[in-house]
Amino acid sequence: MEQIRASRYGLQVGTLPPGPRDKITDVPGVTVGHCTIDTDTHKTGVTVLFPCGENPFVHKLPAAAFVLNGYGKSAGLVQIQELGTLESPIALTNTLNVGKVHDALVGYLAERCEEEGIELRSVNPVVCECNDATLNDICRRAVEERHVRAAMEAAGTDFDEGDVGAGKGMVCHDLKGGIGSASRLMEVDGQTYTLGVLVLANHGNLRDLTIGGRHIGPTLAQMLEVGQTEDQGSCIAIVATDLPLDARQLERVAKRVSVGLARLGSYIGHGSGEVFLAFSTANPYDHRVQEKLRTVTAFREDAMDLPFQAAAECAEEAVLNCLFTARTVTGWTGKTVRALTDLLSLERESRQRELSSLGRESRQRELSSLEREFP
Length: 375
Known about the structure:
- The protein has helices spanning about 75-85, 100-115, 145-155, 215-225, 245-255, 255-265, 305-325, 340-355, 360-375, and strands spanning about 30-40, 45-50, 60-70, 85, 90-95, 125-130, 170, 175, 180-190, 190-200, 235-240, 275-280, 330, 335.
- With about 375 residues, it is an alpha+beta fold.
- The chain has two domains: about 10-285 and about 300-335, L-amino peptidase D-ALA esterase/amidase (4-Layer Sandwich), CATH 3.60.70.12; about 340-375.
- The strands form four sheets. The chain has a six-stranded mixed sheet with strand order 4-3-12-11-10-9.
- Helix 2 crosses helix 3 (about 145-155), helix 6 packs across helix 7 and helix 8 (about 340-355) packs antiparallel against helix 9 (about 360-375).
């Protein structure tokens, strides 16, 4: 079934043009796959992002990790922050499954290196997480190696968003959250580069939700009878680009994900873990090469506004795409988390019934206002 994303609802984020898919996989070489576990007791899964088509262990890419609020249990960030390189696929899952997914990545990389005749003595798998215990029986740790392998096998340039893979049990702004993505094209010296973002959105509260500059959260919160909840739960963002940025510049770009989250109403609460990773597919590094010096292409520091803008726009739209594609889900304890689209439909129907009693001119004026508020 075709997923209807934010742009189809008339929402345009920023001014930079999107890529052909408007997903992180518009960056050449990047692929994404999901494996979803959807049973009576489990609403969870795993999502795997491949940063390139080559073996990432010997095709190391410039990378950075930025922790805005460290309420999280991710694996692999320390070495990225120290060495500035990415040498594995990036996996997303729930909090208590990080260890099992990490082990599966080790097994995959060991096998691949052995098949390719590459010596591997240690490797730094990257696994990031959000807590899906609201909808998923998290302590049973349902994600197994076979699920990670299935997500890898499913990886491609097109992928679903919303309540799929690692996003199956996530809650965003008190609504159904999960996976979302977006991309932007950047013109630099007559050449087109791409920046894309993928989010695992499990953060925010409904009363603060702002979409397209409209503070619609209070209206939706009143419909659901939701009180003032805390901004907690975490958001993981992965930024990919083919622009030749070094690790330090990538960290600066990763920080701009926070701009997109803030535009939607998140204030990054105490109990929310905001972890952002960024990598470039330019200037790969093979540690087997003997020469001590290598030639790279560098991007000018005073031109960084362009990738900053692209990251902010992509992050905002990625969360919106997550919210608009996710479906209503009932979890293992019987709690139901509603989809944003369900609430918007209910609100439109309610407002249209109210308008039916107005005169023609007043009704047209109010309908125009309704279209602007709930596209």
